[in-house]
Amino acid sequence: MSKRVLVAVDLQNDFITGSLGTKEAQAMVDRAVEKIRHFDGKVLFTQDTHSPDYLKTQEGRLLPVEHCVKGTWGWQLEPRVEAVRATTPIEKPTFGSKGLAEVLKAWDTYEGPLEEIVLIGLCTDICVVSNALLLKAYLPEVPITVDASCCAGVTPEAHRHALEVLRSCQVQVLE
């Protein structure tokens, strides 16, 4: 079994065509699906998950756009992504997922060292960068890679800035 893991971060309707969707996110979905379909290793998914009182949370006050409310269309994985999903998504109420980090740390500890963790998804400048840096903290010796061609940011400029931050934190960035 390959010791590589692909993490598909928040490939949900609201980030693609919904309340926080962008044309860049829409343009990368087919590439992301192909990456998931042909990845040699385990594929995990995260799912941004909020409650109906999202706008009363700190995040909601700072980003006052209701999105990814559990059970709604916007919360669901994009249909092409859902069609290739083989594992239950890890729900996360915040940008970075401690649950994801703990699962991967346990695999690394009990099943032998992970060779690489690859991240794709949305949004590069928020949840992708948060999860990459969280995983770097939990698993400092495991190479972390972000495939930029399968990511999109809130804006193209924010996407580019996030990639620079990732590079400076010793995350490999594939263009």
UniProtKB/TrEMBL annotation:
Q: Name one GO biological process term.
A: pyridine nucleotide biosynthetic process
Every copy of the Isochorismatase-like domain together lies at: 5-174
* Alphabetical UniProt keywords: Hydrolase, Metal-binding, Pyridine nucleotide biosynthesis
> Pathway involvement?
Cofactor biosynthesis; nicotinate biosynthesis; nicotinate from nicotinamide: step 1/1
Which GO molecular-function terms appear in the entry?
metal ion binding; nicotinamidase activity
Q: What SUPFAM superfamilies does the annotation carry?
A: Isochorismatase-like hydrolases (SSF52499)
Instruction: Report the top EC class in one word.
Output: hydrolase
EC no. given is: 3.5.1.19
The UniProt family comment states: Belongs to the isochorismatase family.
Q: What is this protein called?
A: nicotinamidase
Source organism per entry reads Candidatus Acutalibacter pullistercoris
